[in-house]
Please model this.
Amino acid sequence: MKKLITYIICFVAFINIHAQDNRFENGNTFFSEEKYEEAIEAYSEILDSGVESTEVYFNLGNAYYKTGKLPEAILSYERALLLSPNDKDVKYNLEMANMQVTDKLETVGEFILISWFEDFKNTNKSDSWAIISIIAFVLAALMIGFFFLSRSRAIKQFSFGMSILLVIVSVAAFNFAGAQKDRLTNRNTAIIFEPSVSIKSSPSAGGTDLFILHEGTKVEILEEVQGWNRIEISDGNDGWLPSSTIETI
Model:
């Protein structure tokens, strides 16, 4: 009975994967035929089924871009970039889409070492960093074994030094994996979907208007209070807007 249930589960999973592949191929066919609305529907069905991938978000973004739906295109590209932070095609298309956003914001300067550190952290996905951490830890354990078993002073010095280095690599990779995982699970950035929205000084329609943002602009969510979000933009300014005007990346 248990084997039968297992076979049924595997069969259903196979059917689901096959159906998702068909929808992806159908979406690509619709896109190549310039049937962009049909392509959007095909890609969206895959995402609605709980499957996320860089390719689906990227193609969905392209379809939205072709139909002139800028906020939807930027949101899709940003979600694709979350899954593959170093994908050059996604970065390029996102940059092209952002050039059409009304708000041209300056970015607060960042220390070059911090910027380099973030770029390096994004060179691998969470699972890849986790694998590197495990491998480095195993190698460190082997080096410690050589340290205790070897009678050669040179080998002892080498194995001791390498074990320390590998432990550092393991811990760093483990932290990178956690940071990448946290970036995917605790998403605190969003895209504005309203043509224009007034940023308030308080979470209330009666709050003072601070500045105006337009559709497609990316914001960081700082906190949420009863249908309002306090957000910060790349130039450091912050304020409140209705939660209904943004879509979380």
Remarks:
- Strands lie at 189-192, 196-200, 209-214, 218-225, 228-232, 238-242, 246-248.
- Confidence is low (pLDDT under 50) at residues 1-19.
